[in-house]
Design goal:
alpha/beta; Arc Repressor Mutant, subunit A; D-Maltodextrin-Binding Protein, domain 2; 9-stranded mixed sheet; two-stranded antiparallel ribbon; transcription; LysR family transcriptional regulator
Length: about 300
């Protein structure tokens, strides 16, 4: 009979695809992780991983073990929730993956409220300009700008948000006035690095009529800081404008975008009352914060 601690190590290696990555999550060294994996393989009489220079990949036996280990993990989590009193305050660790615009301008306030209401809750915000892999448990839940097309996931629309072309007062004062789209020709555009756009919903360039981006970044926050520095014009989130004094919308009636945030969870997590309650609280908080910040623009 496999030991649960060894199964936990197995899951960590399967998700991190390396001993060192698993060790960081488990707060132990890679050598210890390797010994635990070897012990589990010996107990089961099967090789669970193929080791190579690229990392650790599951064998057929490891692939068959994975869903059983995940069910054991979910059962223990559910038991802890029930014994801890799921109807009370929320506690434990929650890791949220989100695009950096949401992570920088919305989640800090929303998560602060959640922590105030639930003192035993520990929240980790992972801000990355890409799609998260929930199957590898990179996060407990993820926020995305479009719903995924595949995978064993549950998807919930959280809220719409709005974006506009914007610039700093200083930039506008130094350049010719912009009264219509045609006036944008010759202005410096700020936006995404074209080949690093990870979701079609982030491809804003066509909205401005510009053919190239003169100053580009894969980070929404870097783009906003460039706009704030007076470096040019960029499509920015309305909810980010209150954090950038001097930045104003340009041609707001002509260039206006609406996008949505979606909450994505692993399908098996639907059985977790704790994660469901956290998802509901997170969604309510994000809706309130988007509305509050957009009202200031």
């Amino acid at each position: 009979m496999p030991d649960w601690d060894d199964l936990k190590v197995f899951l960590a290696v399967a998700r991190a695809e390396s001993l060192s990555g698993a060790g960081r999550g488990l707060k132990c060294d890679a050598a210890t992780v390797g010994r635990r994996v070897a012990r589990l393989e010996e107990a089961l009489g099967a090789k669970l991983f193929l080791r190579s220079a690229q990392g650790y990949a599951l064998t057929d036996a490891g692939t068959r073990l994975l869903p059983h280990a995940e069910r054991a993990e979910q059962a223990l989590s559910a038991a802890a929730e029930e014994l801890g009193g799921a109807a009370g305050a929320l506690s434990g660790q929650l890791r949220i993956g989100a695009p950096d615009g949401c992570a920088n301008y919305l989640l800090p306030q929303v998560c602060a409220e959640l922590c105030d209401a639930n003192p035993g809750l520990e929240i980790q915000i992972v801000a990355l300009p890409r799609v998260f892999n929930l199957s590898k448990r990179e996060a407990d839940m993820a926020i995305a700008v479009s719903p995924p097309a595949a995978g064993r996931l549950t998807v919930q629309k959280l809220t719409d948000y709005h974006l506009h072309l914007a610039a700093h007062h200083d930039y506008l004062a130094r350049h010719a006035p912009i009264r219509c789209r045609a006036d944008l020709r010759g202005h410096r555009m700020i936006g995404y690095i074209p080949d690093m756009i990870f979701d079609k919903e982030l491809d804003y360039l066509a909205e401005t009529g510009a053919e190239t981006v003169a100053l580009a970044s894969n980070s929404v926050s870097v783009q906003m800081q460039a706009v704030r520095a007076g470096a040019g014009l960029g499509i920015v989130h309305d909810f980010a404008i209150p954090f950038a004094p001097g930045v104003v919308r340009v041609l707001p009636a002509d260039i206006a975008l609406r996008r949505s945030f979606w909450l994505i969870r692993h399908a098996d997590d639907r059985r977790s009352d704790r994660l469901t309650r956290l998802a509901e609280a997170l969604g309510q908080g994000l809706r309130r914060e988007v509305a509050r910040l957009e009202a200031q623009v």
